[in-house]
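BUG: 3D viewer hangs when loading the predicted structure for this chain

Environment: internal workstation, default settings.
Expected: structure renders.
Actual: progress bar stalls at 90%.

Input used:
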Amino acid sequence: MIVVLTGGTGGAKLVQGLHHTVPPENLAVIVNTGDDVEWWGLHVSPDIDSVLYALVDALSTKRGWGLENDSFRCLERMARLGQPTWFSLGDLDLATHLTRTNLLRAGKSLSAATAEIARRMGVRSQVLPMSDDRIATMIETVNGANLNFQEYFVRERHQVEVRAIRFEGAEQAHPAPGVVENIGSAEAVILAPSNPVTSIGPILAVPGVREALRRTSAPIVAVSPIIGGEAVSGPAAVLMRRKGWPSTIAGVARAYEDFLDVLVVDLADHADADHLREGDLHVLCANTVMKSQDDKRELARFTLHAALQARGAKV
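Structure tokens produced before the viewer hung:
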């Protein structure tokens, strides 16, 4: 079993590559839900949906989120009716959120609702929310505003200055069924090229998850979302600096230093990789920019190979 911790567009792309590299039944994906938001009365789980769409090859190539070839007529109509439209939902995408909301209102947990939607979509891999408990990634700005992640990332286009990041509800939360168990029995654990602060950070904040990563005998491989000191997309570099980590591959290594075995970085960071290799961490260079389907599959194969090599060394 290959276990992936993921969130964001980069993570969904790597999951799509892994889907074409390993048997789908051998893939378990643990997904960030700190970005979840209620929108137009619906429970939206953006990272879960991106993974589900990636696993059926329906993820929008152009946007990196939502469904391929979706339309936005409902969004246009909502604008005419005076409703907020800064958070875009496609027409077909709405069906996913309507179904999830109905299942939750019927008493199902988020993990049970996710499994039901996955089954109906034909997904054969396990897709697990990090927790069934509500955890919200909150961004405190320097002017004292408290924004949920979507308000910060989408509405404000992550252009406001951040004072602090917190994961509201994490301390009281529990891992969703299967999360800790899959990590413990994995042949390899992969941390996708996701924001270490707001995509992987909420997963690690769930009590028991970080401990499971420290205990597992499986090799743990992370793919860096940072290239040349900048994020491939989004505010990862800014938020890493706010956490006190350098916005470099060294900062990624620091975020995961208590459990990480191998760090995969982009070819552009080969010089910095040499410095990191002076410690115990194995650092490998590859093309980590996934512009095409072939790029996704090649990075997935490279990461899996790195994990197998590390497993041999660990054993």
